[in-house]
Amino acid sequence: MAKDLMRYDVMAQEALRGVVKQALHKAAGPGGLPGQHHFYITFRTRGRGVDIDDSLMEKYPEEMTIVLEHQFWDLDISDAGFEVTLKFSGVPKYLKVPFSAVSRFHDPSVGFHLQFEHEVEDENVAVALPETVASDNEDEVKATGSDDDGAQVVSLDSFRKK
User: Fold this and answer.
1) Distance (Å, rounded) from C-alpha 89 to C-alpha 87?
2) Cα–Cα distance between 116 and 103 in angstroms, integer?
3) Where are the beta strands (DSSP E) in the chain?
4) pLDDT (tens digit, 9 = 90+) per residue, 24-71?
């Protein structure tokens, strides 16, 4: 088989990141998240372009999962990523996350899940196709931290490949 010089794997991954972008655009709209929709977004905290508070970086040195449901503010989406303010232990914290740093996106209200490989840093680096997984079992998600006002940081270990 010939070498894939078109990089279809990268194109597919970027197209699926567009699904995340569109979902966030809808959440940032005037009506907010429709119905029971809510998002678990996992990202690499050391990914290029990620900007989070030092205390969060210390607590989550590799990966962090945020929940966008009822209590999020200033959600702003650009072509490159999103910015949002969330409360952690009652203290508002600003987060800036490029789409390239997102490793998982899950909307448990409808059992929709996307998993992405690491970001491409060089055009010669091979990237596997993203894995699309459907899961209707919201019980698989374990909370690892919670907030006085209901906001949570969760671990999606049950969705990781072993």
Assistant:
1) 6
2) 5
3) 39-44, 63-68, 73-77, 81-88, 91-98, 102-107, 112-115, 131-134, 142-146, 152-155
4) 999 999 989 999 999 999 999 999 999 999 999 999 999 999 999 989
CA-nearest of 79, 90, 86 to 20 is 79
C-alpha 40: how far from its chain's center?
Answer: 6
Nearest to 110 by CA among 42, 63, 40: 40
Phi, psi of 93, rounded to the nearest 5 degrees: -130, 135
Nearest 5°: the CA angle 64, 66, 67 is 155
Structure tokens at 124: 């010669």
pLDDT computed for residue 119 by the predictor: 56
Single pTM value for the model:
0.73
Give the tokens for residue 50. 């990620």
Residue type, 50: V
What DSSP state is assigned to residue 129? P
pLDDT band at residue 117 using 50, 70 and 90 as cut-offs = confident
**Helix (H) / strand (E) containing 56:** helix 54-59
- For 34, which DSSP code? -
